[in-house]
Design a protein that fits this description.
Blueprint lengths: L2 E5 L8 H14 L4 E5 L5 H5 L11 H6 L9 E2 L5 E4 L8 H4 L9 H9 L5 E5 L6 H9 L2 E7 L8 H14 L5 E8 L6 H14 L12 H5 L7 H4 L4 H20 L1
Parallel strand pairs: 1-5, 1-6, 2-4, 2-5, 6-7
Antiparallel strand pairs: 3-4
Helix pairs in contact: 1-11, 5-6
């Protein structure tokens, strides 16, 4: 049975998609079977793995709407052991399209129940919003990781996400747990970065990953080549940080088993 982890933060530009791609690649590199689900209408997770949206018809949209089987919509990536259920432009209207569906909060969970045994990890890249797509992701997940950019407004809005998680635990998924908060785009040369880190660690205590992901040019360049940072430049500071994050994730999950 797969461990299902959502990456959520309603604030955009925090490294959510980059983290999902590179954590998935890191886990696949140690022979774990990984499925990455792109729930963001922008489709950046697919782009970051070299997929051109117009070149394939597969999409998570039909799966959510109940018009397509999840198994035939999963694509193989160039990373061994890593598969993707890609996004499509139709996802931008999913919040409205799903309004009249029965059990609309459970559509992704029901689909994942069919294929969960085929993977060790299922990673969900949520959109930068707290609408029906993110609700579906959190209802289907065992854990959520919250990426936070090291900037002045890092904690602004996180309370709304925490409130959403609390509601989902109360109404639909009592077993949902915050696995950790991940500090991204860390620049140790900036005094603000250290101040933000102290603030976040004081707020979330042991829930903050020890590893921080540095602001790194090679990580930023990698998606334009359709590659995870680990394949684009394995020895870069960013790629090595994501390997350490993967180790932390595995250790945390082992402690919970």
């Amino acid at each position: 049975m797969a461990k299902i982890i959502s990456f959520a933060n309603q604030k955009g530009g925090v490294g959510k998609t980059t983290t999902a791609i590179n954590l998935g690649t890191s886990l696949a590199a140690i022979k774990k079977r990984v499925l990455l689900i792109d729930l963001d209408p922008q489709g950046n997770a697919g782009t970051g793995l070299g997929f051109v949206r117009a070149s394939h018809k597969q999409s998570v949209y039909g799966v959510l709407m109940g018009t397509a089987n999840i198994k035939v919509n999963i694509l193989t990536t160039t990373v061994e052991n890593l598969h993707i259920l890609p996004a499509s432009a139709a996802l931008s209207g999913a919040d409205l399209d799903m309004l009249d569906l029965d059990n609309k909060e459970f559509k992704l969970k029901y689909a994942l129940d069919e294929i969960s045994n085929n993977y060790d990890y299922i990673i969900i890249d949520c959109p930068p919003a707290l609408g029906m797509l993110t609700i579906n992701a959190l209802v289907a997940s065992n854990y959520v990781i919250i990426p936070l950019q090291c900037e002045f407004f890092a904690l602004e809005g996180v309370q709304q996400l925490l409130s959403t998680i609390s509601v989902i635990k109360d109404k639909w998924n009592a077993n949902l747990d915050i696995l950790g908060v991940l500090l991204t785009m860390y620049d140790k040369k900036l005094g603000l970065t250290k101040a933000v880190e102290e603030d976040v660690r004081n707020t979330f205590k042991s829930k903050v990953f020890q590893t921080v992901v540095p602001r790194n040019v090679r990580v930023s360049e990698a998606p334009s080549y359709g590659k995870p940072a680990l394949l684009y430049d394995f020895h870069s500071a960013g790629a090595q940080a994501y390997l350490r994050v993967a180790t932390e994730v595995i250790n945390l999950l082992e402690q919970k088993d």
